Amino acid sequence: MSEPTLQDRFHLIGIGGAGMSVVAELLASRGATVEGSDREDSGVLEHLRSVGVRVYVGHDASHVDPAAVVVVSTAIRESNPELAIARERGQRVIHRSQALALAASGMRFVGVAGAHGKTSTSGMLAIALAACGLDPSVAVGGVLPQLGTGAHLGAGDVFVAEADESDGSFLNYSPSIEIVTNVEPDHLDRYHSREEFEQIFVEFARRMVPGGLLVTCAEDEGAVRLASAARAEGLRVVTYGCAGRALHTPDVVISDVRVEARGASASLAWGDRSAELVMGVPGEHNVLNAAGAWVAGIECGLDPQAVADGLGQFTGAARRFEARGQVGTRRLFDDYAHHPTEVEAAIREARVVADGGAVTVVFQPHLYSRTRIFAERFAAALSGADHVVLAGIYGAREDPEPGVDSTLISSRVPGATYVEDMHEAARLAASLTPEGGVCVTMGAGSITRCGTDVLDEWKRMEV
């Protein structure tokens, strides 16, 4: 069977998903005929229609053109009627990452990987490159306010994309530059051990084109081991980190870090190259992300200070501590955090933004396996908030596991409450948030829809 080309027709199953919708838009931008389906209508589907993508609501075998190349993600089950008919007909079925690689063909590919920080780091780099006049193509898993989308086909020769380690699909890419923000174990339902998880990143590093550059964090144990393994194989590697926290002497030294409610700043030095970084997003983790993006920008041939100035134009990405509204002195934010380290970082950021006010979190765990494996660590991370409400688990691609529910976490957090229905959980969280406080809807699933529940409850309380 021949390899797919941009002249083919593509049918994307689950086209409304964060990663799949980006691929659909990029393929359409490059002239391909694109269509697809999703379980329910959404703003994402409406946007895809506006750019010429034909969208079906609901999954049905009749939606699949017999001549189409069918694109799936790991979340699509073999029992899906559209995938089943494609298999029965012997149609070409490819993974989303293969379709993205096709959309990026002929460009310098920058793949951003890591257990956390992919969207923010790739978004930062995309905005910085655009500010420097390169007009990159972009494929990130969250909407960038400056672009109004997570997908953009630029006129330049650089393609910036998230590279997903969760299912090993990032091995379908051949990057010129790789940024690995961290290699902290996750997806242990697939990888089973830290060693197995770390090995997939070593294989990712081997996927670089000859002369490519691996950029990774010197403050993360797994990333340090990755850097060592890559160097042992003769690959080019640059590490970054704060001298006081790095596990070895970093190539790029971050110093004078200052974090405030409205942003952060730092000094960056890489040999004889240096820059002053002033960011519009808060959080020490975002300073680290920016340092990795800064190196990649310089590797693209740009001036160090110009890249830093471009990074300063990044205003965040959708669902990355995104402001969702305010009623009186109470403020609402929404965050995609779904791993203990991400939860801890988001709560730290909320503390800075709250500036002494109380922090309330309504958290929806993502995946039964992740909840079971990391229950104690989730509890420790959530204990950093003043008030914690747990909603029911968002199972996504997984079936329920006997004995696994959100009480595995809530029972370990003093004062935490478990409310299965996410809307009720959000309203309770709102009622627990005092004046001057911050409430965060948190998780990778449907909890993002509950912002109106929080705001409406606050309005009721104001009456």
Q: Can you describe what's shown?
A:
This protein is of the alpha/beta class. The protein is 35% helix and 24% strand. The protein is built from 15 helices and 21 strands. β4, α3 and β5 (93-95) form a beta-alpha-beta unit. The radius of gyration is 22 Å and the shape is globular. The mean pLDDT is 92.
Derived structural class = alpha/beta
Main sheet makeup: 10 strands, mixed
How many domains in all? 3
Q: Please mark out the parts with pLDDT under 50 across 5 or more consecutive residues, or reply none.
A: none
Output the number of helix runs. 15
What do we call the CATH homologous superfamily of the largest domain? Mur-like, catalytic domain
CATH architecture verdict of the largest domain: 3-Layer(aba) Sandwich
Task: Give Rg in angstroms.
Answer: 22 Å
- Helix proportion of residues, in percent? 25-40%
Q: How many distinct beta strands?
A: 21
Q: Quick check: average pLDDT?
A: 92
Amino- and carboxy-terminal Cα gap:
66 Å
Shape: globular
- β-strand amount: 15-25%
CATH class of the largest domain: Alpha Beta
What topology emerges from the helices and strands here?
Blueprint: E1 9-13, H1 18-29, E2 33-38, H2 43-50, E3 54-57, E4 69-72, H3 81-89, E5 93-95, H4 96-103, E6 108-113, H5 118-131, E7 137-144, E8 149-152, E9 158-162, E10 177-180, H6 188-191, H7 194-206, E11 213-217, H8 221-232, E12 236-242, E13 252-260, E14 263-270, E15 273-279, H9 284-299, H10 304-311, E16 322-327, E17 330-335, H11 340-354, E18 359-363, H12 368-382, E19 387-390, H13 407-410, E20 417-418, H14 422-432, E21 438-442, H15 451-462
Parallel strand pairs: 1-2, 1-4, 2-3, 4-5, 6-9, 6-10, 7-9, 10-11, 11-12, 12-13, 17-21, 18-19, 18-21, 19-20
Antiparallel strand pairs: 7-8, 13-14, 14-15, 16-17
